[in-house]
Amino acid sequence: MEAKDKAVAAENQQEIVKVVQWEDFEHELARLVSLSSALNEAKEKKALLQQKLDSLIQVEAKSLSQSNQLDEMREKLESRKLVMGNESMHVKVVEENVNKEEERLSNEIRSLLVAGTGLSVSRKRLQEANMLLASERGYVHLRKVQKLLRVRQQYMISQVSMLYPVKVVIGHAHEQELESFTSSSKSGNFTGSKPIDQGSLTISALHLTVLPFKKMSFFTDKKEVQRSATALGYVAHAVSLIASYLEVPLRYPLRLGGSRSYIHDYAPSSESTSSESASTSLLSSNMKATEFPLFLDGQETTRAAYAVFLLNKDTEQLLNFIGVKSLGPRHVLANLKELLTTILSPEYIDT
């Protein structure tokens, strides 16, 4: 670039030629010398300024690079702050869950401690109960008390048997009897029904006859109807007394009234319509008891027959309570006799 400037200056000198007088030569020479020195100083200053400019450019480039690095680091820092914030929230949630789980475990531990204490107390009581049962006043005493209770029950039911004796009568007309009695066993097997050489059952010398339970007519014997109703009243009273002595609540409660006794059934009546039965079954808990007469009331015999069926069910309930099977759904007196015979037997006390 300096060479180019010199060439330009030479051309200018060739184009412009200045004539200097001798007397002005020194002055011009001095001026040229000063200009030359000023030019050198300017060049030095230019060189210095160029160096400073280069250094400033380098510093600016370095500063710009550092600024870019700082921006990148700032972005990384922001992203790291965001991640740390999310991690902090997650840590708080985990901490809350841990606290809840710790509280739940503490409650469970307290419950286990309480249950363990209760279990220890129960185990101690069980050991004491076992010791009491193993002692002379334990199981043996319980058996003695149970035996005394059964002896007492046997005595009281023997009074019922004396009050309402159920006996076998030989030679009665079998076609008129509702019941016949044959030998039975503890298994509940009933061997046969109404054989000619077997006797029929009576309660207090009264038979339960078939004729009153057929369709009544104008020629039906009223005395026979009355005797049948009286016999059913005796059976109802005997069953009620035995149930009270055995402390067994009857499934079908009785309303005693001698020959005008009734039995209660909490099931829907057979006389109700299908819609009434459906609505009644939905409200079985609030259902009122239906009374069925244990005697013939008017010309209708269905209700009385159903009442006899329910009375036999009560007798079967007592038989099942003492561990004896029923002799059949139509054997009222036979089941009652089986009940009395079993309770009054010596085996009843030892069972």
UniProtKB/TrEMBL annotation:
The keyword Coiled coil is annotated on this UniProt entry: yes
Superkingdom of the source species: Eukaryota
An MF annotation (GO) of this entry: SNARE binding
A biological-process GO annotation: SNARE complex assembly
GO cellular component: endosome; lytic vacuole
Keyword Coiled coil: yes
Segments forming a coiled coil: 32-59
Keywords from the named record: Coiled coil
Name the record gives this protein: UV radiation resistance-associated protein
UniProt organism field: Actinidia chinensis var. chinensis
Organism placement in taxonomy: Eukaryota, Viridiplantae, Streptophyta, Embryophyta, Tracheophyta
